[in-house]
CopG family transcriptional regulator
Amino acid sequence: MKKPALKRSIRLPADLARQLADHAASRRVAQSAVIEAALASHLSPDGPERLEAAFARRLDRIGRQLDRLQWHVELSNETLALFIRFWLTTTPPLSEAALKASQASGKERWERFIETLNRRLELGPRFRDDVALDKNVEHPKR
């Protein structure tokens, strides 16, 4: 046998009443059902534990995302540092005459690089995917 419901009158600020009405309409339930569920959740003895569990799951997900982000930043930094070191140790300085021609050629190459970078960022593939593929490829024994 279902317990009889008690009638209560409450006053809500206009903006909260609108939010309640909108929420109930979007869920296609009565406003009293929304209020009942909210009160039951708020007064539930395990409410704080559920909230803590939800926060823990969210923090774990954020932690994993930060770990991936840290790995990508470290990969980018090491890649750039390795390239700069290699370039500085293998590229001889240019004479004054060759410098102007090199700068003109460099400007064209830079523009092509930027176009390629934009295209890869928009369409792919990404460098991280190339690295992951390279990692999974078995290299022949020498």
Summary: The radius of gyration is 31 Å. The helical segments are 14-27, 31-43, 47-90, 96-123, 127-136. Residues 47-90 form the longest helix (44 residues). The mean pLDDT is 87.
